[in-house]
Structure formats: C-alpha cells, structure tokens
Amino acid sequence: MKEVVIVEAVRTPVGKRNGLLSGQRPDELFALVLQELIERSKVDPNEVEDVIAGCVSQVGEQAGDIARIAALMAGFPLEVPGVTVDRQCGSSQQAIHFASQAIACGDMDVVIAGGVESMSRVPMFSNMKGSKYSEQLTEKYDMINQGLSAERIAEKWEISKEELDAYAASSHERALHAIKEGRFERETMTVEGANEQGESVKVKVDQGPRPGTSTTSLSQLKPAFKEDGNITAGNSSQISDGAAALLLMSREKAEELGVQPRFRIVARSVVGSDPTLMLTGPVPATHKVLQKSGLSLDDIDLFEVNEAFASVPLFWMKETKVEHARLNVNGGAIALGHPLGATGAKLMTSLLHELERIGGRYGLLAICEGLGMANGTIIERLEKQK
C-alpha cells in the first residue's frame, strides 16, 4: 500500500446564513477554492486525477455533480474528472477517505478532496422535496430529527442545560481568541462577498463567532426542538456557507514533483450507529480509528469532534475521558458554523494548521452524521525534508 500524504489545504471563511457569502453560488465558491489550492501548491492541474467533493443538499445550484462542474469552472483540464458524495455532515471527510483509498491502493497518485455547502442559497432538506421515509424504515426505527436526537443524548448522558450553554459559550470564546491571534489566517483565503447594502467586500474572517456570548445570555434562549428541551439555537451549530479542499498525493509522487508532504493519513474509520440517537457515532469511530492506527487517546495531541450540538462533544468527552484542553481548541461549529458538505474538509484543514502551529504530531477528526454514522481520521505531521 502506498503512503498517502497531504501537501496543501485551504478553506474559505465561513459565512453566516444570508450573510457575507450568501451572494456566492456554491459551484463558483468551490471553483475558487480549487484555484487557490493549485495556486498555493504550485502543482500543475494536469497532475490531478480526480476531484472528490462532499455536498449534502445536491439540488439546484448544488446539483449535477458540483465537483466536476467546479473543476471545469476553475479552469482545470477537461480530462480531470469529478465526483460528489453525500455522507451527510461527514461528506467531505468521506471525500478525504475516498481520495486516500484511491491513492493507497495505487489507482491514483494525485487527488483533490473537499466539500462545499451554501445553506443560504440551497436550504437544508431542500433535496428531500417534502418526501417521507418509507414505512419499511419507520416500522423498524424511530426516525426523529437531529435536534431531538441531541436532546436524547443530553438526557441519556445526564448533561444539563447549564453544561450545554457553558460549552457553547466556550466555543465562541475560543473562536474569538483564535481570530484575534490570527490562528486561521494561514488556512483561509480571501473571498469576494457582499454586505447588507449590496456593496462588495473582501471576506477573510469567519462571520459566526459572537463577542459577548456567555452562559447567561445563552440561558435566555428558548428550546428549539421540544417545549421542555435544553437544545437551543445557541448550543447548536450555525447554518452557514463555505468550502474547503485538500491536495493529497502518494509520497512517491510528492517526491517526484518536488512537493513537501506536510501530513500523512495514518488511519481511517467509518461506522454505523443508532439511527434514532443518530449522533453517537463519533465515539465508536474514535475507538475504531485508534485501533486501526495502533495509537491510544494519549498519543493524540489535538481532537476535532464536530459541534453539531453541544451534547455531542460533551458526551464524547464523558465516554473517552479526553479533557477539553485537547478538543476543538479554536472553537467549533457552534461558533464558526457548519456548512454541511464542507465541514469535514474545513475541520481537517484547521486541524493540520493548528498541529503545525503548536508543533503537535497526531490529530484525530470525528464527525457525527445523519441516519446514525460517523467517520474518524488520524493524521500525522511530517518533519520538513532538508
């Protein structure tokens, strides 16, 4: 099996729903990311053998295989194909896995993996068109929405409203601190956006983090999914717009092209979990990817567990005993947003840049997914070649 390395990774800033990036078509946004990835890596796009993109709501401007469409719009050679995948919130993490697998087995040597979602322009569930689950499914499982699943997780793991809100407040605090310190500057590209007056603006900073967010302010918000519930808009991920992409290669190809490998893919996992609780998959995905890698929780310098709802990282910490100091250190989707199909690639991009910043070695990414699934990925920072 070939060793798979990451040589470049970039993302857009994340825009709020109907915010600064809402004027950008998602296919155009992803095309911009592909162009930026090639510009940063200095790799000839003729070397790219496939573009794999995650996208959840594949309808309207996100329909018709947005990976191929964006590659053509980005000016890639027409011989470069593209394919779009949907594994719900982990779609672009799965794109990374598919790219890694293609390289590892020797089918390809250079693959771009990424994702995009404009939740402003293509609303969540718009691809469902009001359809319902088959009775063959609903007779077997209680197919509730993710908000109610988050409520059940909080109840099962005895996570209080105060804990949920305190975690959410810390996500904003960490994100604002990271922005102030410039921690995201290397990983983000500048995108042309528009303000409320329709004026053109340069967008470089994530739009979601809110100064002054506190446990007290969050405690005033009403339950979002059930009358006596604890899950609110404030302790849930933000509806967002964004895109991200990574350039993966075999180590041999990187050496041939004279490109510096920055990370290697150590191990991958994907699991199914209870489709009613739905969001519990990150725990078995974490254990499975660690088992595959031969590493332990103590070996991992930084963890990213997607903050779909505050109950997810909180229950994950209870189950793994990992301290908050190593988890989502620069904030997560509660503050920074969750552009569904882009989130896996976005979080991987942020994880590898933060590992480089602190000089860490191993990072682990796990994302819960609709219908009860999760992906897990471990990456290792590589020393620069002399």
UniProtKB/TrEMBL annotation:
Residues 192-233 are annotated as: Disordered. Pfam families: Thiolase_C, Thiolase_N. SUPFAM superfamilies: Thiolase-like. It comes from the Bacteria. One of its GO terms (molecular function) is acetyl-CoA C-acyltransferase activity. Residues 4-252 form the Thiolase N-terminal domain. Residues 261-381 form the Thiolase C-terminal domain. PANTHER family: ACETYL-COA C-ACYLTRANSFERASE, BLR7806 PROTEIN. This is Acetyl-CoA C-acetyltransferase.
